[in-house]
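Your task:
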Amino acid sequence: MSNIRIELIENLDEAEWDWLVPHAQRDAIILVSSHLDLLDVGVAIASDSTNEVQIWIDEALITKPSPQQLGAWNTDRTKRFDTLIVQPYVLVKEK
């Protein structure tokens, strides 16, 4: 297992939307599709695997949250997400 993967495993967590709002306000949230593994995406971003990341972006498997999603989450601030911090981003996956 790569060192990056081992380091990122320690950053895997779960969070309520309320805790993620400050990151959303600085446009640092990346929404990861349920079809992808959060850790795999984090490793790809942290290791600059631009080709892999670009494919996910092109296929809309990793996106910035839409205004509609942000609005829905703001009305249910206890909604939970799996999270992974990969500076300067916070990767989130809806639970």
